[in-house]
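Why predict the complex rather than its parts? Because the way molecules touch one another can change local conformation, and only a joint prediction can capture that. The input here totals 938 residues.
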Amino acid sequence: MFKNMNFKLFHKYLIHDFKRKISQLSINSILQSTSVGDKINAKGWIRSLRKQKENVFIDISDGSTNQKLQIIVGSKLVPKNLTTGASISTSGVVQLSPKGQKEINAQEISIYGDCIVTDGYPFAPRKEYTSEYIRQHLHFRPRTNKFSSLLRIRSSAQCHFHNYLTSQGYVNIHTPILTSNDCEGAGEIFQVIPDNEKLIKSMKKEGQSPEEAFFNGKTFLSVSGQLHLESAAHALTKVYNLGPIFRAENSRSRLHLAEFYMLEAEIAFLENLEDLVVCVEDLVQNVTKMLLDSNESDIMNLNKENKRDFSWMDKKFVVLTYEEAENILIKEGKEYNPIDSISKENELFLVKHCGNIPVFVINWPKNIKPFYMKECPGDNTKVQALDLLVPDVGEVVGGSLRENDFNKLVGNIPNDSDELKWYFDLRKFGGVPTCGYGLGFERYLLFVTGITNIKDVIPFPRWPHNCSM
Amino acid sequence: MFKNMNFKLFHKYLIHDFKRKISQLSINSILQSTSVGDKINAKGWIRSLRKQKENVFIDISDGSTNQKLQIIVGSKLVPKNLTTGASISTSGVVQLSPKGQKEINAQEISIYGDCIVTDGYPFAPRKEYTSEYIRQHLHFRPRTNKFSSLLRIRSSAQCHFHNYLTSQGYVNIHTPILTSNDCEGAGEIFQVIPDNEKLIKSMKKEGQSPEEAFFNGKTFLSVSGQLHLESAAHALTKVYNLGPIFRAENSRSRLHLAEFYMLEAEIAFLENLEDLVVCVEDLVQNVTKMLLDSNESDIMNLNKENKRDFSWMDKKFVVLTYEEAENILIKEGKEYNPIDSISKENELFLVKHCGNIPVFVINWPKNIKPFYMKECPGDNTKVQALDLLVPDVGEVVGGSLRENDFNKLVGNIPNDSDELKWYFDLRKFGGVPTCGYGLGFERYLLFVTGITNIKDVIPFPRWPHNCSM
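Output of the joint prediction:
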């Protein structure tokens, strides 16, 4: 085991008596894999409590499932201060309730931490709260039934995106959060500088402003990893990232955050918008199937009132050209102004109009889309771009073929931009056709959960005037 | 299919003739799953080129594997400008080379984009470059053989961390990048403000500084998601995140970046440091096994010269108390000053001294560790903390039990901190014992790949005076 070394000195430090497995069972494991008669220990937080003469019935949860575990304990064994919200450890025997569900006949119970509402705990037992109220207590929000379901769904969804794309041969590339490029920004960006003024002074070179001192230039938070992904796609063919993105917009709509997550993918050698449509449709359908499979009970838990309709999962999505979409809006008498493009209201109308199936809108006017999008063959007023609109949310994915002709691309930029020289280089040396898309991760979660406010599908929402914790 | 709607209008927009599968085969698939005689198309970038009288031998790669695909094409079919670095499409028949490897006998070949070194391409054929030189061309770096192996390894490693922790019942929680808390910072933090001065003016309330306008308070880039993870662990028991972390430090060492990735995990109801040691050991061993399984050829590719020794994967890691570590350093005559704690040099010495097996150092002096760590039972000068030191890199994981006694925790903070009231609340209401750790993702990659500079294991490194692209 130890070659070429003084073994004697160290064997005493090797700990041989560690338990190799943490023996603590989660409530999910207790409900799934224990047998009647098993003696077990369970730990969790009290979600509800009913006192009867002889016994107390306690429902506990530990976040491993949205199901609760019922503990039955003799009144005499119950410690003081046993209230909803308290954390306990209990040992007992697995038995079946009259309804056939596993429960624990407790032989002992102890409190880790009590939870006294009158001390300032914001959630009283048996009360329902609005999501606005719950959002004011972000640090306690994971303790609420619905939000813990959302967190498990979000966790599974991100894992499924990674696994699905990996299975399709994509390489995950962490695009930078800090960047010296401000390409899509149009002013809606955050700037980053060290907080320490002494540090800035010590690093500042002659002629530099304080903002430029640390990185030798102004530095921003990324608004998109696309351009960086493109550089990787020019070597690895299929690449993606799922990471945070930032926008300094003073928008408080139910669909906007200052910090949110985006799944971005870039694919080399794909030359047709139809192929990109298939990529996006396959992604959304496959990941949603994986999610319904892994988290059905959490999704049902969020949909007790409004059952989501997932029949779109097995259908081809609708594809409209931008012109076709325009014609529908005009024909149906919707307020539509070409200069403003398609409003949120009109997005939602189009989806409803097409039978609540996700709708691709393709071939967009060039003048409202970014410089890197590729023109439609035979129509230089349009670009080969797509938006995917989904029920209740509207746009959830945006993508396009990228202009891979060096001269055309450079011509699309009004001023000679030194900042983007590296991006033009990708076309100059070993250039290939590429395309890609960005999927708003939170918007996707709104779509599959039926939750209406984006602040309620991210653990720690940041929006104008709000960055608590 | 379309319930309750005007079906006729839309059936023409449903595209029925999309190919349901993108037919393009990756080079990995060609090498793995085609048969001799198959007619196929391959696309990729030329990595090398040998011209003979009758034929030209071309090696291409597309990033799907570190293996190259050999194309044999008659000299007459070869287009002009066929050079290393150019991107091509080729069609032909799969055959076996004299050595028994699959290759393509090409019937046609076309260039997507040429790659002329004299136009400014920084990599000439058949030349070796230092990693410092390659790093000056970040946008082309994924095209180099070794770095593309690294990117595939990095991608797999992140996926394995997600899957391993998910399999162990952990819930992924995206901790915020933007935060109003500056807890561990000690000045080494970045501040964030909108770049748009008009926006700041329009949002600024009376008495606020410009930095406070957007979020109603000064806002920073996160230096750790631990405290936020703790709030989720107090409901979901086992939580983690793998995300970017920022430090505004003027350090250019081979082990520091301004933006890097950290895997952080928090676990409720674990009360012994031994259990945390087991968690970390299991994580590192299991993920590394998964990685060797998925990316053996890439790891070998990076280790042609220096073969990594992975025998530690099946061994228990060494555990030293801080005191034992001190005694070894003193006995071995190393320069050691208790005030400076254990230097990088001494970390590396300890690991070598213990047979190049990863070494846990546990039970650290309280005065050099953060306020939230839990004291050792019976010794209030020590805390139940661990560092994991690994060969060639030193510290790769740091963790501890967290102080869960409300009064003790509050007592550890010199000034009454309103900012952390939410954190104290976790102990006041339904508090439980928790512990957790942070693993430096890039340092882990250095450890398993044998690469020596942290700038060479992240796609877009940011460090003082460097934030290009």
